[in-house]
Amino acid sequence: MNLQRQEKIGKRIKFERENLKLTQANLAEQLNLSADSTSLIRKWEKGKALPSVDIFFRMSQLFSCDIAYLLCEYDARTKEAADIWKSVGINEDAVAKLKQSNDIYKNRLMFNVLLSEIIVNLDLNAVQENVSFSLESFIGAGSNVESSIKRKTRVEADGTLNMPGLEAYLYFRERIVSQFAFATEKAFDKLQMNMIYEICNGMKSERPDQASNLLLYLKLILENQKVFNHGTSRTRRKRHN
Fold first, then answer.
1. Which of 107, 117, 194, 205 has the smallest set of CB atoms within 10 Å of its CB?
2. Nearest Cα residue to 37 out of 46, 48, 22, 26
3. Is 155 helix (H, G, I), strand (E, B) or coil?
4. Which CATH architecture does the domain made up of 3-73 adopt?
5. Distance (Å) of CA 109 to CA 116, 189, 195
6. 113-163 tens-digit pLDDT
7. What is the dihedral of CA 155, 161, 165, 167, to 10 degrees?
8. Separation of alpha carbons 61 and 57, rounded Å
9. Element (H, E) at 162
10. Among 84, 87, 88, residue whose Cα is nearest residue 96
């Protein structure tokens, strides 16, 4: 193993130790090492030596991570999280949050269905574009503050929107928030419709008249929703200069 990799492993061990607020003596105690093993731990953390396999195993249990993470094979604490991170770009903290929510709500499917529908209905391209425009405007304004303050928001002859950096940042930030709100609203509407369908199906045998009336009401709602969505289809603004 090369020295650079060994030093990286040492830094990771130190990071995990400090993350648990353990001193080197505390770590030695947790790993069932002798009290005078702090000098050995210092060598590990400086990349001058490596723990034995059994010590790596004990550390992985103590730090609640994979041994491969301690060996810097990947940067997420588990292989599963590393694979998800690599395949869809959701970082380790987000993966952990989703897993935690799944454990809490696994018997309440509505939450996970709603979360899935929010992701499906979110216009990812629009979010990406607006994030880029917002940050570019903000950074560009920072390079010439005096010029940015004097500028006024205006529409150019070609229809592009030209505005100062801070205003552009806030404008596109609001657009990003509204896109998430739109996706959440759409997801909730779909979840609500599905629940009504389930209620109707459950009522068919015992209360067929009420079930048919409810289904008719649901059909009217869906038709009106299609008309509304068609009439208010969103158009994107052109990129500002």
1. 107
2. 26
3. strand
4. Orthogonal Bundle (1.10)
5. 11, 16, 11
6. 788 888 888 888 888 888 887 777 666 655 554 554 555 656 566 666 666
7. 80
8. 6
9. strand 161-162
10. 84
- CA separation for the pair 197, 199 (Å, rounded): 5
What percentage of the chain's residues is helix, strand, coil (to nearest 5)? Answer: 75, 0, 25
Q: Express each pLDDT in 1-51 by its tens digit.
A: 788 999 999 999 999 999 999 999 999 999 999 878 899 999 999 999 999
Give the per-residue pLDDT at 234. 44
Give the span between the Cα atoms of 16 and 92, in whole angstroms. Answer: 15
C-beta separation of 95 from 85 below 8 A: yes
pTM of model > 0.85? no
Segments making up each domain of the chain, as ranges: 3-73, 108-231
pLDDT of 21 reads 94
Cα separations (Å) of 11 from 52, 144, 170, 193? 17, 40, 39, 52
How buried is 41 (Cβ within 10 angstroms: 0-12 exposed, 13-18 middle, 19+ buried)?
buried
pLDDT tens digits along 51-68:
999 999 999 999 999 999
